[in-house]
Amino acid sequence: MIEVTNLTKKYGEHVAVDHLSFRVEKGQIYGFLGPNGAGKSTTMNMITGYIAPSEGTVTIDGRDIQKEPEEAKQHIGYLPELPPLYMEMTVEEYLHFAAQLKKIPKAEQKARIEKGMEMTGIAEVRGRLIRNLSKGYRQRVGLAQAVLGDPEVIILDEPSVGLDPKQIIEIRDLIRSLGKEHTVILSSHILSEVSAICDHIMIISHGNLVASDSPEGLRKLMSGSMELELTVRGRQEELEKALEAVPGVDTLEKLAAPREDFVRVKVIPEEKTDIREKLFYALAEAHLPIMEMTVSEKSLEDIFLELTRDPESAEQESVGKKLFKGRRRKKDTETDPGEENDMEKVPQTVAEEADRKEEK
Fold this sequence. Notes:
Elements: E1 2-11, E2 14-24, E3 29-33, H1 40-47, E4 55-60, E5 63-64, H2 69-73, E6 76-79, H3 91-101, H4 106-120, H5 135-147, E7 153-157, H6 165-178, E8 183-188, H7 191-197, E9 200-205, E10 208-213, H8 215-222, E11 226-233, H9 236-244, E12 249-255, E13 262-269, H10 276-285, E14 290-297, H11 300-308, H12 311-332, H13 337-344, H14 350-359
Parallel strand pairs: 3-8, 3-9, 6-7, 7-8
Antiparallel strand pairs: 1-2, 1-4, 4-5, 9-10, 11-13, 11-14, 12-13
Helix pairs in contact: 3-4, 4-5
């Protein structure tokens, strides 16, 4: 239905959208998810032909949005983040005006307007001035404008922004009903909104598409490793020594302990590795009783934060993992004396690295 190929938008040296490519099929609700400033609205504006891309193409039902704009736009209904409403018009006057702009045949305008008002639940306020409507009803009027021409694709940019909880639920129900007859692309930075409504989620970060799958598929994709939080009676040094002997441990992170004679850590195993049984026996052999162990797998929120985190933060975390793995390599492989001395200078955990810097 919609084919986006190498879509790029540059503002001077700033790259808002960076060679984005994806495909939208018929009959699904797509969620376009990302933090503020990720490039969502810019991408929406290029898909609808509102702004021109610096590079790349957008085709809608085989029509290039830049080369055949009128033919391509006939398949699209668009609700931008700020609905293009005329506050001094009544709801019905505005929809008649929008129908004329969309070049809907005059004989069909009345029926299309009635259908649009019925679908969006605004028939009861048809005679009221738009400026006197609540924010929720204004969003509904904008949606009615978007569905007027009975388009195959409806594109909604942050449709629930500024709404109260009751209005958000109403708009979500409305979008679900629209999804029964139309393909819907929904842009949002609200994770719960996208996961509650959408059949397919595309996550964008820093202008790049970093994930594209169903909500269930994303969870399966990122649930390869679990996180363990351990509370052990003993000393930090003893615990770290015991964990060194457990194969499959990837990262160790020190946490605040509830008591002086307890140690609390977060243990992240290697991908697709369950180390709980090995860890239990290793700590039992080291006479370190486990007082508490909690297991958590990544939620959709965790996935979103991991995929959209700042590159500098990701690099720092990567360095932390290398510190732990550096210690394991020292024990598991042979090194020359000079190399071994360098290894001994590596701090045992990320937390200890921070402590070392503070001491300096």
